[in-house]
Amino acid sequence: MQISEKYNPQETEQKWYNYWLENKYFHSEPNKKPPYTVVIPPPNVTGILHMGHMLNNTIQDVLVRRARMQGFNACWVPGTDHASIATEAKVVAKLKSEGVNKSDITREEFLKHAWEWTDKYGGTILEQLKKLGCSCDWERTRFTMEPKLSQQVIKSFVDLYNKGLIYRGYRMVNWDPEAKTNISDEEVIFKEQNGKLYFLKYKIESPAGSDTEEYLSVATTRPETIFGDTAVCINPNDERYAHLKGKKVIVPIVNRVIPIIEDEYVDIEFGTGALKITPAHDINDYEIGQKHNLQMIDALDDDGNLNEYGLHYAGKNRFEVRKQIAKELEEKDLLLKAEDYVNKVGTSERTGAVIEPKVSVQWFLKMSEIAKPALDVVMDDEVKFYPEKFKNTYKHWMENIRDWNISRQLWWGQQIPAFYYGDGENDFVVAEDKYQALVILEEQKGIIADIEDLRQDEDALDTWFSSWLWPMSVFDGLIDPENKDINYYYPTSDLVTGPDIIFFWVARMIMAGLEYRKEVPFKNVYFTGIVRDKQRRKMSKSLGNSPDPLELMDKYGADGVRVGILLSSAAGNDLLFDEDLMLQGRNFMTKIWNAFRLINMWNHEDKPANSTETQTIEWFENKMHKTIAEIDDQFEKFRISDALHLIYKLIWDDFCGWYLEAIKPNYGEGISKEVYTQTIYFFEELMKLLHPFMPFLTEELWQTISERDADHALVIAQQKKAGAFNEEIINNFETAAELISGVRNYRQTKGISPREAVEIYTNASAFANESVIKKLANVSEIHFGTKTDKPSFTFLVGATEVSIPLSENLDLGEEKAKTEEELKYLKGFLISVDKKLSNEKFVANAKPEIVEVERKKQKDALDKIAILEEKLKSL
């Protein structure tokens, strides 16, 4: 058969992906096989492929393809998340570019635009995952806003409300002025920013008729919030301010009279020890305000601008006001000083905007009750974390969990199913739709109303409130809890995700699974690292340090990129991206392609296998079984990168480097049909092992080896199970390989041609792979149990001494000088080791294994010195 000189990924990748789709290899239906289920962490519908997706989805594909090839009914459910904040922002921006403001249209009109945008751009990332080779069951693709999934979200809200776990109330929230919604604590990223600490003068209110003016100095980083001040707080133990207890101060510029209150919360050492209290604009001030029954004045609107309480600054942006008010305070002699100050500022993970604490009415889910069982299953390893270190992170968060704010001031998302029938705070009912709301209203409250009398809550649910149901909702488990899919595929097998969403998603999915199915949603969670650049910065579009994954695949092939990214991705550790890794992946493809071309070129002859071939075949059979057992062990530990390294070494070093070299026929000769058949068998087994990592190349070679029908494609072929192996056979061959490398090293260092045959002398009585050694090292004769008196190149293979008489073409004087130099170095090295081992403290206190390493260094040095001294005598 003819095979092209070079492998061309562009010609093969789409061909085989289409072939896999046409034959429905990725599609799964419940059957008698054991299920292996993975649900994709749904990427945002607004998203495009980035390096983090590449890593995460490559790992998932490796696991799924391997499970399929190990006899499991593999089902990888793909889908996308509606991404409330991100998608709404995109649609708002699009409308604005067309001269339309969101506030000028109805919710229904806005949603129509949002669906049009989603239909047009929403599938981009899924199509890109196909280019990567992802073997998802595309017939099962789900979207968190599709009707059935939305129905399940609403159903769970109603259920949790009826159980008393969801409530509505006023709370301090994190307000994102750019997205115009609140966000959860977990979505706030604190960043260090350079700012100013302003020391303001609050005039002490004087008794009528008094001419004395006394000021209290108060430090703040946000002078624009003084319009919401309702008290100044001092520590009751602060003797500096004992005379001010019970008095009042006047807020600068605002001229509002506010009380001086006492609370031990105030840090005497920070700033001036006097704290301005703005209950509507700081979470800690809010708590103090509640405790002391203070007035709450909200001086900011939803856009982060000052409102009417801001007096002459009304309508101006908060940061603009900060600059202007500092100037006004200085002009009015109300600013003592301003110092440079570095503080941590909360920013929105979604938009990057600086968060404003804001008090508003929101919906919350009580977490403490449902968090306890979800903590227990992880601590008891019912759900296993890989790496295990993330159990501590999980435990800390779960033990300090706060109620989940599940409402968002958005239109894109599942609308909260609360229906209001009056103006009172509690004039509402919770139901799956308006018709059920009317029934509840009549049955529970005795109120008869019409549909038109009800108005639904304007807020949408947090996107995570839909994705926490994902492992169940993708199988319609909440609307049809006994359907065949949910009963067969749930709980799922493995989850692959990033540690940054351990709280947003992983913890909540475990809670939801236990709440609704009384089962954990998955058995294992594998946390990938974060892809970073060489400067250890997280890759992002904003930094411009992230390559385009599609361009990388065009340049190196999807398989090359997959291997490149996985070779350096140790479990749970961040990946330092280097494009050279992709080159290594591409080189690996080339190596395998050329190996097959070499095998394919050989003529087959009817002749028996010789001893070199039989020994090599026996070794590789055992080596392959041992490596498969090691690969299985690494997969059990979710050490995907280590498993790939084992396969890489088995193919590159063992098969291409040793096996093929050993069986390669001499020039002009053919290969035994028996050996050829065995070689093809080995190659096919290697392609099966490699397929999950490099699906396109391996399928191309598999189909090239021989014609296969649809039932015998590589994608569904079964991998070889690890069998028994003989460690002695493996060790013997590796000893031979080390000896061959020693002879090759002699040739290389002495400039001796590989074609010049050599004799070797050894103290060994025999070598198990003598014929292999003779062929690959070009050894004409081996003298066992014999020393040579000739000047020679001597080296050790374990305890075995091997000597090669020096070629007559060598300059013996130069060789003597080199030997003396090497001997001098070794003696110096030995002195340093001896000194360490003669130190009683070192021997007594160092770990035994460290002492043992030093003793081995000592023995090796002594052995080599003895050899070199013998060599000097012969020279």
TrEMBL record:
<dbReference type="GO" id="GO:0002161">
    <property type="term" value="F:aminoacyl-tRNA deacylase activity"/>
</dbReference>
<dbReference type="InterPro" id="IPR009008">
    <property type="entry name" value="Val/Leu/Ile-tRNA-synth_edit"/>
</dbReference>
<dbReference type="InterPro" id="IPR001412">
    <property type="entry name" value="aa-tRNA-synth_I_CS"/>
</dbReference>
<dbReference type="InterPro" id="IPR009080">
    <property type="entry name" value="tRNAsynth_Ia_anticodon-bd"/>
</dbReference>
<protein>
    <recommendedName>
        <fullName>Valine--tRNA ligase</fullName>
        <ecNumber>6.1.1.9</ecNumber>
    </recommendedName>
</protein>
<dbReference type="GO" id="GO:0005829">
    <property type="term" value="C:cytosol"/>
</dbReference>
<keyword id="KW-0030">Aminoacyl-tRNA synthetase</keyword>
<dbReference type="Pfam" id="PF10458">
    <property type="entry name" value="Val_tRNA-synt_C"/>
</dbReference>
<feature type="domain" description="Methionyl/Valyl/Leucyl/Isoleucyl-tRNA synthetase anticodon-binding">
    <location>
        <begin position="619"/>
        <end position="761"/>
    </location>
</feature>
<feature type="short sequence motif" description="'KMSKS' region">
    <location>
        <begin position="538"/>
        <end position="542"/>
    </location>
</feature>
<dbReference type="InterPro" id="IPR037118">
    <property type="entry name" value="Val-tRNA_synth_C_sf"/>
</dbReference>
<feature type="short sequence motif" description="'HIGH' region">
    <location>
        <begin position="43"/>
        <end position="53"/>
    </location>
</feature>
<dbReference type="Pfam" id="PF08264">
    <property type="entry name" value="Anticodon_1"/>
</dbReference>
<feature type="domain" description="Valyl-tRNA synthetase tRNA-binding arm">
    <location>
        <begin position="811"/>
        <end position="875"/>
    </location>
</feature>
<dbReference type="InterPro" id="IPR002303">
    <property type="entry name" value="Valyl-tRNA_ligase"/>
</dbReference>
<dbReference type="InterPro" id="IPR010978">
    <property type="entry name" value="tRNA-bd_arm"/>
</dbReference>
<keyword id="KW-0547">Nucleotide-binding</keyword>
<comment type="subunit">
    <text>Monomer.</text>
</comment>
<keyword id="KW-0648">Protein biosynthesis</keyword>
<dbReference type="InterPro" id="IPR014729">
    <property type="entry name" value="Rossmann-like_a/b/a_fold"/>
</dbReference>
<dbReference type="InterPro" id="IPR002300">
    <property type="entry name" value="aa-tRNA-synth_Ia"/>
</dbReference>
<comment type="similarity">
    <text>Belongs to the class-I aminoacyl-tRNA synthetase family. ValS type 1 subfamily.</text>
</comment>
<feature type="binding site">
    <location>
        <position position="541"/>
    </location>
    <ligand>
        <name>ATP</name>
    </ligand>
</feature>
<dbReference type="GO" id="GO:0005524">
    <property type="term" value="F:ATP binding"/>
</dbReference>
<dbReference type="Pfam" id="PF00133">
    <property type="entry name" value="tRNA-synt_1"/>
</dbReference>
<feature type="domain" description="Aminoacyl-tRNA synthetase class Ia">
    <location>
        <begin position="15"/>
        <end position="575"/>
    </location>
</feature>
<keyword id="KW-0175">Coiled coil</keyword>
<comment type="function">
    <text>Catalyzes the attachment of valine to tRNA(Val). As ValRS can inadvertently accommodate and process structurally similar amino acids such as threonine, to avoid such errors, it has a 'posttransfer' editing activity that hydrolyzes mischarged Thr-tRNA(Val) in a tRNA-dependent manner.</text>
</comment>
<keyword id="KW-0067">ATP-binding</keyword>
<keyword id="KW-0436">Ligase</keyword>
<dbReference type="InterPro" id="IPR019499">
    <property type="entry name" value="Val-tRNA_synth_tRNA-bd"/>
</dbReference>
<dbReference type="GO" id="GO:0004832">
    <property type="term" value="F:valine-tRNA ligase activity"/>
</dbReference>
<dbReference type="InterPro" id="IPR013155">
    <property type="entry name" value="M/V/L/I-tRNA-synth_anticd-bd"/>
</dbReference>
<keyword id="KW-0963">Cytoplasm</keyword>
<dbReference type="InterPro" id="IPR033705">
    <property type="entry name" value="Anticodon_Ia_Val"/>
</dbReference>
<dbReference type="GO" id="GO:0006438">
    <property type="term" value="P:valyl-tRNA aminoacylation"/>
</dbReference>
